[in-house]
Amino acid sequence: MILEQPLEAPDHYPSLSSEKNISLKAVIGLSEEALDDAARRVFYALSLFPPKPNAFSEEAALAVGMTGPDILDLLVDVGLLEYHENARYTMHQTIADYAHLNGSDPDAIQRFVHYFVEYIQLNETAYTLLEREVPAIFAALEYAQQHHLSRYFCQGVCALTSFLQTHGRYDLAVSYLEHARSLLHPVQDAPFYAQVLQKLGSVQERRGEYQQAEQILLEGLQSARQIQDEYLVARILVSLALCLERRGAYEQIEHYLEEGLQLARDQDDSLLKSKLLTLQGQVFVRNGQYEQAEAIQQEGLKFARQSNDQEHIAGLLINVSAIQERREKYTEARISLQEARELANLAGNTEQLCLILSNLGSILTYLEQDAEAKKVLIEGKHLAERIENPMFQTGIIINLGSIALKQKAYQQAEQYFQEALNTATTIGHREMIAWIHHELGTLYLEQTDYINARCHLLLVQEQSTEPDALASSAYALAQIADRKTI
């Protein structure tokens, strides 16, 4: 902090000669002298907010300062606080540093932490509102850690996880959740502990750490069962089924789905039913039962609309579009994705936007709009790189490779597929690996490289459980056998 920087005396201090150089510290001190004790305490409390260029709301300032608007006006008048816009304020870094010299008020810190933890909880899925307050939210969690406000920290982290996930802040989410986990006792804090494990497992699944996610979720499931929290059990079952689906362990999924659906029916929870039906639809997809899959996803969509959960509605529209694509209903799939894109944009859900752009690129390719498809996929690739989601990055790269393959740009296509294969192998996404081998097999087959084509197509037969992939690769292998015979 630099407080001894020479500065010309301001006009509103006539007692100081304009020809004298004074320090910033002296100028700020003169402003502070104009305050009574109550206003001074508010000044110190507001220095807890992240400084300019960050801004904070009047509501937050009043809560943290435990004051009224007149004191804020006074602080603005004496130059210690700046009115920003839209009833928001900001404090210069140097002024905040000066206030910090007077130490910290534990009560003000607790008010700051309490206000923002409650704010997160009230706006858990209102991502645009959370985005505006991110610097202060992060500051609140840091203060909670520093001042051993463990309960507030755990509450805030659990409520913030969804926002961090949708914005691709996986590493930060894991760091927060691991710290929360370390603060909790598995038995004495069992409800909180199980909730933290559910959140942590979900984030690890997003990062592609499927085995680690499964272990965490199983521990969370055991904890939730012990305290007989059926709502939490059902939520963990959803996360666990999704994790197993990602790594292709389909034989284990149905048991979890059946139990979860029964719990959702018992609780009459529309959103939970919708999420479980979504996963059940994925099982039908894997079995090639696309008509049943679309019907059950549409049923899930109905429940999601009843709950008015815009994020989940968008997610279901993405799933519906994927099934429509498999049924060659490309125009309908595009319409579903357009609605999903509007909802994801409104919510500021970066994760969903990545997936939407990836799927939209694929649909546009089928609609013979390759240039637009490539443009959409490149936009999605940049977005996926920003949030560091390996599964989304891989899906987009595969689609870019498929466009290159369609355009006979074999070298470029091979580069895309090899890059995708490396990532998919690292995260262990079984069906994605099979998909890439299928595309590589097709690429080599088109170049009459039958040896490499056969190797990749046989790997599809070994690894995939999807009827379409198995049938397509079997047909290609038969073509190779015929050509060798000829």
Automatic annotation (TrEMBL):
Q: Where in the cell is it found?
A: Cytoplasm
UniProt-listed Pfam families: TPR_12
Annotated Gene3D superfamilies: Tetratricopeptide repeat domain
User: GO CC terms on record?
Assistant: cytoplasm
Main subcellular location of this protein, as a coarse class: cytoplasm
Q: Does the keyword Cytoplasm apply?
A: yes
The superkingdom of the source organism is Bacteria
Assigned keywords, A-Z: Cytoplasm, Repeat, TPR repeat
State the PANTHER family in the record: TETRATRICOPEPTIDE REPEAT PROTEIN 29
What family does the database annotate?
Belongs to the Rap family.
The name under which this protein is listed is Uncharacterized protein
Organism of provenance? Dictyobacter vulcani
